[in-house]
Write a structure and sequence with these properties.
Malonyl-Coenzyme A Acyl Carrier Protein, domain 2, globular, alpha/beta, 6-stranded mixed beta sheet, 14 helices
Length: 305
């Protein structure tokens, strides 16, 4: 049975995350300390105690999620056949695969969060999840609107995220009249052309970091294909900042092309295991899923993996 590890992205964060791991594992304590030394930031305090508005800052959220995911991966002591991460999670997946050093990864994703936040003035951009509309219909409506509004995430057959400047996003929702939509609690329109300044700054940093070939294939957000070489991984991370996250095609490739039957969400939350179940069901694929974020779920999963 093939296994894929899934690494969560921004939105999965929660005050208290990682605390149980820290209390019960010396390795977790060592890795939090390594992250804090690299960042010059009290990351464990922000994760465990918040306040929430501090953890929600993009430049704090990204290293926090990567650190917790990497700790879970190390404690699991299992190597998957494939890995994938949603947006930021692709950095976590590549760190687990040995492509990026952990200290480099936490440092660069903090910069990534800062660059993305600074690319668009606060309050000018937004993102909204649209439920129950086809990708074709959404793209048709978006093409009729002046201003920046683009598909940022293709999460499943029934959920896409649009993003851009506030007024064009609202105009798109008014024209679509979808069954349901939800504005996301984010501070910038990620994965759109408005992130070009962030992409240019991040590319300089990524070019300055050593990348190794992944120990296992890591699926890219930008084209839903696996990175098997260091250069493929680096280029995928660069393009990802302004490109739509193709999570649905990525998951379909894992399910159908690669015939993965077991999916493990490595880190905070259950968003990705919920999504993969919803994607697998209508195409008739039977899968097993696990979500690991603390010692109890780690021990339960370890018996079956």
């Amino acid at each position: 049975m093939k296994t894929a590890f899934l690494f969560p992205g921004q939105g999965a964060q929660n005050v208290g995350m990682g605390h149980d791991l820290y209390e019960n594992s010396s390795l977790a304590r060592e890795l939090f300390q390594e992250a804090e030394e690299s960042l010059k930031l009290p990351l464990s305090k922000i994760c465990f105690q918040g306040p929430e508005e501090e953890l929600q800052k993009t430049e704090n959220t990204q290293p926090a999620l990567l650190t917790v995911s990497y700790i879970v991966y190390r404690l699991l002591e299992k190597r998957p056949d494939f890995a994938a991460g949603h947006s930021l999670g692709e950095f976590s997946a590549l760190t687990a695969a040995g492509t990026l050093r952990f200290s480099d990864a936490v440092s660069v994703v903090r910069k990534r969060g800062k660059y993305m936040q600074e690319a668009v003035p606060l309050g000018e951009g937004t993102m909204a999840a649209v439920i129950g509309e086809s990708r074709e219909r959404i793209r048709e409506v978006l093409s009729s609107i002046d201003g920046v509004v683009e598909v940022a995430n293709w999460n499943s057959h029934e959920q896409l995220v649009i993003a851009g400047s506030k007024a064009p996003v609202q105009e798109a929702l008014d024209k679509l009249q979808p069954k349901k939509y939800v504005y996301l609690k984010v501070s910038a329109p990620f994965h759109t052309s408005l992130m070009k300044p962030a992409q240019e700054r991040l590319a300089v940093d990524l070019n300055g970091l050593p990348f190794a070939d992944p120990l296992f294939p890591v699926m890219r957000n930008v084209d839903a294909l696996p990175s098997r070489k260091a250069d493929e991984a680096r280029e995928g991370l660069k393009k990802q900042v302004v490109s739509s996250v193709l999570w649905y095609p990525l998951c379909r490739n894992l399910l159908e092309k690669e015939e993965v039957e077991r999916f493990v969400e490595v880190g905070e939350g259950k968003v990705l295991t919920n999504l993969i179940r919803r994607i697998a069901q209508p195409i008739g694929r039977e899968i097993k899923t696990f979500s690991i974020s603390d010692m109890k779920s780690l021990e339960e999963a370890a018996h079956e993996l």
